[in-house]
Amino acid sequence: MTETTVSRESFSAHIWRKTLDGVGVKVGLAWIALLVFAAVFAPFLANSMPLLISKDGIISAPVLRYLSVEDAWVLATFFIALAVYRLRLGSGKRILLFLLGSAVAALLVNMFLKPPVLVIYDDFRTITYTDVDWRIMPPIPYAPTDYLRDLGSKGLEAPFKTEGHTHLMGTEENGADVLSRMIHACRISLSIGLIASGIALFIGVIVGGLMGYFSGIVDMLGMRLVEIFEDIPTLFLLLTFVAFFGRSLYMMMVIIGITGWSGYARYVRQEFLKLRKQDYVQAAVASGLPLSSILFRHMLPNGVAPLLVAVSFGVAGAILSEATLSFLGLGVVDAPSWGQMLDQAVKSSTFNWWMAAFPGGAIFMTVFSYNLIGEAFRDAIDPQLSRKAGVN
Amino acid sequence: MSQPLLEVRNLHTYLQSGGREVRAVDGISFSIPKSETFCLVGESGSGKSISALSVIRLLPQDIATHPSGEILFNGQDLLKLDDPAIRSVRGSQIAMIFQEPMTSLNPVLSIGEQITEALQLHHPGMSDSEAEQRTILALEQVQMPHAARRFRDYPHQLSGGQRQRVMIAMALACEPQLLIADEPTTALDVTVQAEILRLMRKLQDDTGMSIFFITHDFGVVSQMAQWVGVMQQGKLVEVGACIDVLRKPQHSYTRQLLAALPENLSKPVLATTQNLDELSTAEQTPLVKIRDLKVWFPIKKGLFRHTVDYVRAVDEVSLDIPQGQIVALVGESGCGKTTLGRALLQLEKPTSGSVQIDGQELTGLSAHELRPLRRKMQIAFQDPQSSLNPRLLIETTLTEPMKVHGIGGNDEERIELAALLLESVQLKRDFLWRYPHEFSGGQRQRIGLARALALNPEFIVCDEITSALDVSVQAEILQLLLSIRQQRNLTLLFITHNIGVVEYLSDQTVVMYKGKIVERGKTAQVCKTPQHPYTQKLLAAVPRLIM
Amino acid sequence: MLTYLLRRLLLMIPTLLGITILVFTVMAMSPGGISAQTLIGGTDMKPQEKQALLNYYNKRYGLDKPAPVQYLRWLNNVSPIGFTIDEQGNRGEFSFSKGMDLGTSFQYGRPVSDILAERIPITLLLNLVTIPFTYLIAIFVGMKSAANRGGSFDVGMGMSMLALWSIPTMLAGVLLLGFFGNVQHFQWFPTAGISSREAQDMPFLPHWEQTGFVRGFLLDRVWHLILPVICLSYGSFAALAKLTRTSILENLNSDYARTARAKGLAEHDVLWRHVFRNSLLPLITISAGLLPSLLAGSLIVENIFSINGMGQLAVEAVKGRDRELVLSITWVSGFLTLIGYLIADFCYTLADPRVSYD
Question: Is the ipTM of this complex over 0.90?
């Protein structure tokens, strides 16, 4: 009998190491990181106003002056997240601290930030802003809703085809810069993906957990509910919800969330049914541990790894849902989104490849990234196939 | 010894695993004469299955290499044969049967199709009707009841023993000279095992084939083998005639293995005498009292899934477990012994009947009402893989129940108690700060015992806790169990299918068959003079070491 | 078997009820609810049309009644058995032969059943062409990948299948249509519909005439279907190919495959005679789930390629808040899905002798 020697690391650390052990997953994570960066710093990356100007010896930052409440909150939350990540605390405390911090930030930002209501981008190209000592412009000097009327833009210009100023990815029919719109749309895709799957996950875990643990009549009723949600094509259900409920961003998140939980519920139920039979759970019951400990300490953490795989595929699905809704003309109205841009490409009288390829490519890359991460994660968790590469 | 049928010379098999090279078989040499049986014994991971697969060349070629050695079969080196040549040897001259009859047959093909396939493969040109005739003959040869009617049955319609018979029929259909049997009876019940072993001996007499038999069970060895080899970590430490090796083992490892068999283990003398004294008084005050316990699972059928019948897993069982005794619960798989053990602890809801511990009724209590009673009774499980929560430190696993039941004043005290517990199961105290995957199977079973002991219970159900372990580890656990029992005056219900363990460990024996208790009494009495026909059959089937 | 079939059909009823209740609730809970105003408010109609619509809804649902009553009245109309309703909307006798009345779509000014009868076959055609196509490619790619596991084909396919699976249908649709259908680029395929306007007058099979080649009805249909079918199928076959690969690998490593090798079978025969059939079992199970996703896919594809199927109808109905159409589309697509499950289960019993239904 040989003693098996295994490295001294916890289960989750082991899984993480194995997950990161591949090229695909690194590409995926890099792309997501890029999106997060773009989403957080969007106003500094693509905007018509200068970042900094020095006029008559006075240095000012128009970008900061025009920073919207939302922009400021996203920035604050990002830095709170960074700070919390550096702290040495338990994960529960970290999450709590983060939520608290972002709530306080939301409150403060709403109270103290009063950006000008009206922004006229053309102004930034008048001498007030151009006749200066020096100025620093953002890398993409166009705001997403800047139609460049003063420049006589005809719209619909292919990448690098415009004279006088460059549009890396061309412009739309109304003259807006495609790249700038895409950068600002990152926020919607990321937040919808995460929050909608968060909601779906929450409902799914609760319903699935109850079904799996209690079984019997709870299980039967729950399964019927799951089946009902599964048997209507989700997209159709989504359409119905959106058409009858309106289309604000938050409504969209909630709606994608409540139409997408059934998969998680089925998953958690299956996992719980399996876990309930595990000896260590039986031992926990036999020791008289309270239900909360059995469910949340002994069962959930052991089912969470496969669940996270489902979540990363789920995020991809949610992003696709949003894009599809926008594409069908039922998306968020007041902000640019990749799906909506794609829709515009179709609606346009001629086919302009840059209008479709770039936003569509962004959707694809994001979905692909989440899928890559999910795949790597699943391979790390499920040693079945890698074990079977050995003998017997 | 005449010209041997198979001669293995200095065989090496290396396996590529995760960038490392494992020397699974490290220079073994043995030979198998015609019409005789060679048994390879060893504990799990010793390389005995790999040796067998090397002989028939079934190891995947991309991970297995044979740096040196020869496998001479009828004087021909199998390692030098190319792929088509070795395939014509496989099945026709060397056949193999495996451990898991449940999964070794293709589930979507009928057994007839699977046997005729082998026949027609090695006898091209054999007509379908002739192949069918030969198949039915082969099935009759392995004493398959109603062989002709079984032809079109699918594997799932057969019992485990019958499937193993089909496997043997398939292996023997082409009349091979050598049959390799890789633990063919390990997954079977002991009575079925006896039948299969008897069948294999008879077929050997009839056909004159040689058998290369892999097993971990010395009882089986002594029943089957003329020759035996003992394997340890890829090396053959001892080879010889069966009688010589078993009676006069030369190598220390062989001696160690034989000494670890439950029937050879020395019982702590003190414990036995003490128990005999207690026995008379203890019988009046049973710690656990079971009355008419039923655990029935409904079978639902029809349009509205109404219950048409029940699976009577535990059927009107009444049993007293006296204070301070070890009661062994024996029976074959599916007899309801595990369900009974779980129903005692209310892990399985009984259909009806009563379970009392210390005079307190357990059935019908809510989880909340049960909690204080849970301290008195604990359970330890069979599977070392799933018995510990992989996400928790051993420390948490041990101290959490203590905290819930208010044992120990604060966390430091509880950690100290947990460390003492680990020491009492002969583990180091700094194991507290490790995760389950860092331990071997035997260590996990010890930790499982420690967890069961954490609440200082009076009664522990041990559900096949040594079944998944090698004999030497099993011996350690059994001895540990006895010493703990003595220190703590524990009462144990020891669920097992291993008669050797029963004889070694228990004071009383209860035999279960199809959900009912068919016999009970003092262990010595039940094992020496069984009354019930089933018990008699069970005991007769146990492969014993003939010394 | 008959009992099982009957049981499954009976179990469909609560699910279908649940589906319609869900959608009805969504409509009832929406801002403004299902009052007369929201039903007719949005559309530009003449006063008498508005009145007609109001009368119609009042008769069918009783708009002054609470939502559950409205639902029950709708259900009574739609269900093949129930109470008869007279001209004034009063309840009559209970009848087993009153027939289903799906109502009238005001958006189209036609009975819903007529519209559905026109649209469903188109969507079904699209899906029924797609499914075998999907399976053929998936099994082929999956088998090849499994056969040279770890090889360059396997690794390459693994990546590209995941990538393919991640391409949004609308992107693929827009690009395919833009490059292969649009006048600006290669104008190889038609941009809209599933047949040309003149296709009705064409003979069925392609042939030569004096004027030149006549593609015929069949070829015309195929020509129109190529791009939509590609769009609809690539996601599913990417997922299926990965599944096939995993399944085959698992089975190649199984005990019974080892038994087959021990018999002396060559690797090729082990794969085809033993492993193949077992590996297809999970694919059958999956096929049940394929239908809802294909129906959802049709939603997008039909919109891009302007095909007058259920998918396009669904989007129009939802956008126009056409209550009757939305409800009927809901239960019809639910029903199709359930039938899909049933067929998949039935195929499974044929393929796997271990499963039998009593």
Answer: no
